[in-house]
Amino acid sequence: MNIRVLGCSGSIAAGYKTTAFLLDDDVLIDAGTGVGDLELAALARIDHILVTHAHLDHVLGIPLLADSVMRLRMQAGRPPIQVHALPETLAALRQHLFNGVIWPDFTRLPEPERPALQFRPLAVGERRAFGSRQIEVLSASHTVPACGFAVDAGEAGHWVFTGDTGPNPALWARLAEIKVAQLVIETAFGDDECELARISQHLCPRSLAQELRQLAQPAEVYITHIKPGEIEAVMQAIHALDKRHSVTALHAGQLLQL
Questions:
Q1: If pLDDT is split at 50, 70 and 90, which confidence band does 169 have?
Q2: What is the pLDDT of residues 199-250, one digit of tens each?
Q3: What is the DSSP annotation of 201-258?
Q4: Residue 243 has what pLDDT?
Q5: Hey, CA dihedral for 24, 28, 34, 40, is it positive or negative?
Q6: Which residues contact 186 (CB under 8 A, 6 or more apart)?
Q7: In 20-162, beta strands by DSSP E
Q8: Are 110 and 116 in contact (CB under 8 A)?
Q9: Which of these, 216, 206, 123, 201, lies nearest to 168 by C-alpha position?
Q10: Torsion angle, alpha carbons of 37, 40, 44, 49, to 10
């Protein structure tokens, strides 16, 4: 199983792309600006998009992706791309993005009977099969309804992505029950902005260290969602606070394998 990091930044600048992960070649987990680095043929191979929540940095690639590949997929007789998310997230996409004002409604275009996109609601705790891969929906604690995902890689363990989240006891209770091989977890702010992290339900190094104390098993820990220009300071603070885990910062273009 391959997970290609298309984007993992908390915002944009040259060389920084927002959250998007490509699982093998057909499942996209979040759809931030990193999606735009894929060739058109690779975009057309994406059959499923799993969305953690409705914030722009995680979803802005969906409408542009639909427009880019619609014709290729129709010519090849491919089905609509399936967008999987919490019901509240799908409702937000319908109301605020695919509303005919910000962007055309590709759940009804080019034809209602043959749309470019179809929405599929998820629930926390649900496991869904994507080919031979099983993906579980994890809880998240954010300012809007949100979730994370655990991809089952069999004996190798799980690849876990928390999505955007603040402190979340329910997450660690579930992770204690499965084998976590790789954990991708956010740290959106430095310790100088921990109050902002608390208000916006993100993590800073201090709160991340408290969360990781609940991860008893050894795992590779990767930090995502750091703001451009803040990586060195955030990672120094994390390494000073957490001596138990192997923690590194993700970077766009990185390939994770299980």
A1: very high
A2: 999 999 999 999 999 999 889 999 999 999 999 999 999 999 978 888 999 9
A3: T---HHHHHHHHTT--S--EEEEE-BPTT-HHHHHHHHHHH--SSEEEE--TT-EEE-
A4: 80
A5: positive
A6: 10, 162, 163, 164, 165, 202, 203, 223, 224, 225
A7: 20-23, 27-31, 48-50, 81-85, 110-111, 114-115, 117-121, 127-130, 133-139, 147-152, 158-161
A8: yes
A9: 201
A10: 20
For 26-30, the CB contacts below 8 A with 24+ separation are 26/130, 26/131, 27/130, 27/133, 27/135, 28/65, 29/149, 29/161, 30/58, 30/59, 30/163
- For tokens 């090849």, name the residue: 76
What digits encode the pLDDT tens for the residues 91-148? 999 999 999 999 999 999 999 999 999 999 999 999 999 999 999 999 999 999 999 9
What is the rounded distance in angstroms from the CA atom of residue 114 to the CA atom of residue 74? 9
DSSP 8-state secondary structure symbol assigned to residue 16: B
Count of other CB atoms within 10 angstroms of residue 104: 16
220-224 and 246-249 beta bridge pairing: parallel
pLDDT of residue 73: 96
